[in-house]
Amino acid sequence: MNDDQREFLNLRTKPGASGFLESSHVTGLHVDGLIYLEKDGHFKAMANPPPGAQRYFLTSYVMKIAQDEKWMTKAVKLIRENSRRRNQAGKKASIQKGASHGQKTNGFSTRA
Predict the structure, then answer these.
(1) Do residues 7 and 44 make contact, with C-beta atoms less than 8 angstroms apart?
(2) CATH topology for 3-100?
(3) Three-state SS across 53-75?
(4) What CA–CA distance (Å, rounded) separates 112 from 99?
(5) How far apart are the first and last CA of the chain?
(6) Given 71, 85, 100, 105, which residue has the most CB atoms within 10 angstroms?
């Protein structure tokens, strides 16, 4: 835990709204995971923000879901599945890129 996390979590009175970073401190989930959950509709931002706008979350909502075992279990599963999909897509793109440059997947060139 870094100093920023410790400072936020030890505030006597928490702010009414928090961003992704503060929400990450409360939930223990990585910011990228929370961004994915918000885009997927599982983590609700306040005031229905338009695309590209700053997202704010009701701090009491974030604290409530951080204590909800079912929500946290589902969130971790969704983040894990998303990471797996992204990793597989990256591997496929890497293999296709290598093949388009005259290489086999084992890294040896097919050119003489």
Answers:
(1) no
(2) Multidrug-efflux Transporter Regulator; Chain: A; Domain 2 (1.10.1660)
(3) CCCCEEHHHHHHHHCCHHHHHHH
(4) 15
(5) 54
(6) 71
User: What tens digit of pLDDT does each residue of 38-64 get?
Assistant: 999 999 999 999 999 999 999 999 999
Q: Which amino acid does the sequence have at 19?
A: G
| Cα-trace Rg, the chain | 20
CB–CB of 75/83 below 8 Å?
no
Residue pair 85/79 in contact (Cβ under 8 Å)? The answer is: no
The 8 Å CB, 24+ separation contacts for 7-10 are none
For residue 9, what are the CA distances in angstroms to 1, 5, 92? 10, 6, 41
Token pair, residue 68, equals 């909800």
Domain layout of the chain by residue ranges: 3-100
Pairing status of strand 17-18 against strand 57-58: antiparallel
